[in-house]
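INFO batch 0412 | record 1 of 1 | parsing
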Amino acid sequence: MIQKFKSLTTDMKVMLLLMIAACILSIFFPWSKVMIAATVAIMSCVMAFIHGIKYYGTKNLVVFFVICWVVSNFFEGFSVAYGFPFGNYHYTLAGPRIWDVPIVIMPAYFGMGYFAWVLSLVINRVYEKKLSGAKTFLVPFTSALIMVMWDVVLDPTASTLNGNWIWEDGGTIFNIPVSNFAGWFFVVYLFMQIFAIYISKADKKERSMKEYPSVFWYAAPLTYMMQGLTYVETAIVRTDNLEIWHYAGLISVFTMCFVAWIGFIMIHDHLKELEKNKN
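INFO prediction complete | emitting tokens
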């Protein structure tokens, strides 16, 4: 194990150490602590940059970051001001803002969005291929579904319990409107689709899993598994607001943890197949 770690490149070592640190923070300091949540979000953002630069190159990864930031911040701010597409709400989080949206929200969008994209590449079996044809639309569609899984678990605890943002008109799901989740899918699909069209033309590289260490491929499912298990752990140890915490823990098992597990299986099987063909 130590020998394998030593054989990794510096960027992969940093990414692996960040994953371990994020796991420790998530498990032992639940998401109810805003600063811990912000720290893990920033860690996910840094991991996404390391992973994305290695996979797509700096230019293409920056394009993903800019598209993600501009589209998501625009619609977040638009919804705060006019109620579309998420619903009427406002943030209570402290810190600098862009159009009434705390800056700390955007690293979370980017980090979780990028790894949702990579998980979608795995599920659609195009992680070694150039994006083309129907996959140009299937990959962003799947990515949006995966990322909304995160919000379905996150929102009741972050808004209803912790009050990080307030839904002014309430809603039917722990005081959250259904429009929030529909809005999430719309916004995430939009920036993923824009990037898919861009990268299908800009990315010329054919890849092989053998070019990268296994930790590189497992990063995406590990990120989502880590986030999901955080809510499971919290649901077990908390003694207050059990209806919401148990909801979050249960739903995370059958959404985030499930899709991460599928990713683990698909990557493991393909790596084994490559090893078998090699021998």
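INFO post-check: The CA atoms of residues 180 and 221 lie 25 Å apart.
INFO record closed
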